[in-house]
Design a protein that fits this description.
749 residues, 13% strand, binds zinc ion, 5-stranded parallel sheet, 2 domains, 7-stranded parallel sheet, binds glutamine, TIM Barrel, 28 helices, alpha/beta
Length: 749
């Protein structure tokens, strides 16, 4: 087992941590909650007959941050706060503002191709790597042992740690190898003394593209580390990989003196082929064949066939049936779902069900196999004929908007008649308590549909009036009807199902409950038209229709696996296209289709970017807008500015305007826009909406000067970074006032 969920079956860790931060419970209470969560996971694994039960997979916030603390990689500014260890830990994760000082949090990044985020360790001139006193892996190993459970301590490997860290003061990974190796071998000695038998070291960074220097770094680390551990202890050592195959490193990995190697046969497309090149005798293969990321039942016949292939190279006794990655990425249990029917639930497997699957597959249990066969004997869902017909009828013209962007531009200029440097916002306005209360009251049937609608209309009218008073050029309705940009559309499209308790950790105490794509997706009625039309009726200025794009909807859901992602994206694309055309038909002149998460599922290896992802993702977006009239202006929005490397693909989405987050990244993307001769009009966010700070006029003017030094000024829009829904009303009004003023100054110049 690589890892088990750790937020608590009812998100106990989230609630306890939040109470602890507010001073409502003591540290002892928080620590107790954490211990209960760990014990629950260990017992579940034991009950399910798991042979290698994981410890040290728990974390109060993030495992990479734990590893940084384990290795003393804690920047000075946090140490200088002189807080307790746990408080220092949270200071790094959240930032700290109080009696002891004022420091920002370390940055966060997405963990490989998952929706989980890790804290990026910072290594600088002052960093000395050494093993922490009372190392967490030993404490947790002992805790499990005291409960009568033998566990395998799971560590994040030195290579992955050093590869993901950010370096300052001219430091580099190689400077830290010797110290990290002695810290880990020291740790191994302590685990050995405590009675551990195995140590599992995760090196997911081996599935990334690796160059010569990286390969050498890895080999250096492991030649030393394995040697040291084997000389000093009786511990068996496994290196565990996941999220892909180790094509650049297979030969090296299998030539190390390891006792176990973990390979991913689900996302690792080449793992089987690599295995057939040979596998060392006397080494266990931890064969990741049960998908650790999806929520669907495994098809046992298919898994058995895969296992049979694997066992052609490795004796059955040396193969350990495992999940493809940590179960951190799935919810706890299907049993907690109270509103889904049994006919749906029988197709789902969350973490606890996956443990049972491992056992079923490993023991080749005949009755389990038969039940599983019966489940897969029929199609899970019927195809929707109308959806199939629309998909089959798609031709090139569905993906290619006419006329060209340059032609459209002239037409749109005439009809929209916008000033230079047009000002706009990204869509949502502050989701104040009354807005949330109104939605909740409607959902709980405490108010009528008419009351619900009346409230939203009043909010929209106020929002339009505010934007007019501020002098913005392109207005929005404010998105008061939406809880979440994906869930809202999932709720209003056919084909999705929603869980009650299937929470998955996204970062720290933040969890998400993604919708599940269950069947063919279709739209039975207009979704947003009523709100947009009402908003437009309140003003002469154009109001943007506001939609979420197919790639983002899919990336933030659990996709189905019986049809390809491409087909699912097309189905969603067709449904959203109907909404686009309805908005246009009802007088909406500008439509924004958000693709906030477009970059998120970019494959880990560059060679797969187009063939596996962009080649369907970009067309899915084009499908949504290709049929609109030339005078309808299409906008899109993206949250992360890290798309310098796919800039041409973004341009190929063929939107008329794109807005994106840029202020936090110091407008770095502008160089890439310039280099690529980017054709889409752009609104790089001129201030950061993630903070309540109000930007001054001159700050925004400066940002705009930077922008026009790189981008043709005729192409520039002026807008915040992202939606304003998490902000307060006061700071929003003040910020937008300054934004409009800054645009005015630029026009005068
Ligand atoms: N239109 C959405 C909003 O303004 C976009 C949100 C996002 O990019 N995450 O809230
Ligand atoms: Zn955004």
């Amino acid at each position: 087992m690589i890892g088990f969920p750790r937020i608590g079956k009812k998100r106990e860790l989230k609630f306890a941590s939040e109470k602890f931060f507010k001073g409502e419970i003591s540290k002892a209470e928080l620590v107790k909650t954490a211990a209960d969560i760990r014990l629950y996971g260990w017992r579940k694994q034991r009950e399910a007959g798991i042979g290698f039960i994981a410890s040290n997979d728990f974390s109060f916030y993030d495992n990479l941050l734990d590893t940084a603390f384990l290795l003393n990689v804690i920047p000075e500014r946090y140490k200088q706060l002189n807080l307790s260890e746990l408080e220092t830990y949270f200071a790094v994760a959240h930032g700290y503002q109080g009696a002891a000082g004022d420091v920002k949090a370390l940055p966060m990044k997405k963990w490989f191709n998952t929706n989980y985020h890790y804290i990026v360790p910072q290594i600088d001139g002052k960093t000395t790597i050494r093993l922490a006193a009372n190392p967490k892996p030993v404490t947790e190993y002992n805790e499990a042992k005291a409960a009568g459970i033998q566990t395998v301590s799971n560590l994040i490997g030195i290579y992955t740690f050093l590869r993901l860290a950010r370096y300052e003061d001219g430091r580099k990974a190689a400077d830290f190898v010797a110290d990290a190796v002695s810290a880990y071998s020291n740790l191994a000695c302590q685990l050995d003394a405590a009675g551990a038998e195995w140590l599992s070291i995760a090196e997911p960074a081996l599935v990334l593209d690796m160059d010569e220097a990286e390969k050498q770094l890895f080999c250096k680390i492991y030649n030393d580390l394995i040697d040291k551990i084997h000389t000093k202890t009786r511990l068996k050592i496994a290196v565990q990989t996941y999220f892909g195959d180790v094509r650049d490193m297979y030969a090296e990995l299998t030539s190390l003196n390891l006792d176990g190697i973990g390979l991913d046969f689900v996302e690792g497309k080449r793992s089987l082929e690599l295995l057939k090149r040979g596998f060392p005798a006397d080494t266990l293969l931890f064969a990741g064949i049960v998908n650790g990321k999806n929520i669907w039942r495994s098809n046992y016949e298919q898994k058995n066939a895969l296992l049979a292939e694997i066992e052609k190279t490795v004796d059955a006794q040396r193969v350990v049936v495992a999940t493809s990655c940590s179960l951190l990425h799935v919810p706890y249990t299907v049993e907690a779902e109270t509103e889904l029917s049994d006919s749906i639930k029988q197709h789902l497997a969350f973490a606890e069900e996956k443990l049972l699957e491992l056992n079923d597959i490993a023991t080749a249990d005949a009755s389990a196999l038969n039940r599983n066969k019966a489940l897969f004997a029929h199609e899970r869902v019927e195809k929707k004929a109308a959806v199939q017909q629309s998909l089959n009828a798609l031709t090139n013209s569905d993906f290619n908007r006419q006329p060209s962007r340059i032609e459209r531009r002239k037409i749109q200029k005439n009809v929209l008649n916008l000033p230079p440097f047009p000002t706009t916002t990204i869509g949502s306005f502050p989701q104040t308590a009354d807005v949330r209360a109104n939605r909740a009251a409607f959902k709980n049937k405490k108010i009528s549909a008419e009351q619900y609608r009346e409230f939203n209309r009043r909010k929209i009218a106020e929002c339009i009036a505010l934007q007019e008073a501020l002098g913005l050029d392109v207005l929005v309705h404010g998105e008061f009807e939406r809880n979440d940009m994906v869930e809202y559309f999932g709720n209003n499209l056919d084909g999705f199902i929603f869980t009650q308790n299937a929470w998955v950790q996204s970062y720290g105490t933040r969890c998400v409950k993604p919708p599940v794509v269950w069947g063919d997706i279709s739209r039975s009625a207009p979704i947003t038209v009523e709100w947009s039309v009402f908003a437009q009726s309140q003003t002469q200025k154009p109001v943007k229709g506001m939609l979420t794009g197919p790639v983002t909807i899919l990336n933030w859901s659990f996709p189905r696996e019986d049809v390809s992602l491409k087909v699912q994206a097309q189905q969603i694309g067709l449904a959203i296209r109907d909404e686009v055309l309805d908005l246009e038909r009802n007088g909406i002149r500008i439509i924004q289709i958000d693709e906030a998460a477009l970059r998120e599922k970019l494959p880990l290896r560059r060679s797969d970017w187009h063939s596996e992802y962009l080649d369907w993702a970009i067309p899915a977006f084009r499908l949504v807008h290709a049929k609109v009239k030339p005078e309808t202006q299409i906008h899109t929005h993206m949250c992360y500015s890290e798309f310098g490397d796919i800039i041409r693909d973004i341009d190929a989405m063929d939107a008329d305007v794109i807005t994106f987050e840029a202020s936090r990244s110091d407008l770095k993307l502008l160089d890439a826009l310039k280099a690529a001769d980017f054709q889409t009009q752009v609104g790089p966010g001129v201030y950061d909406i993630h903070s309540p700070r109000v930007p001054s006029v001159s700050e925004i003017v400066d940002a705009l000067h930077k922008i026009i030094s790189k981008v043709d000024k005729k192409n520039v829009w002026v807008n915040p970074d992202c939606g304003l829904k998490t902000r307060g009303t006061e700071e929003t009004t003040a910020s937008l006032k300054n934004l409009v003023e800054a645009a005015k100054q630029l026009r005068e110049e």
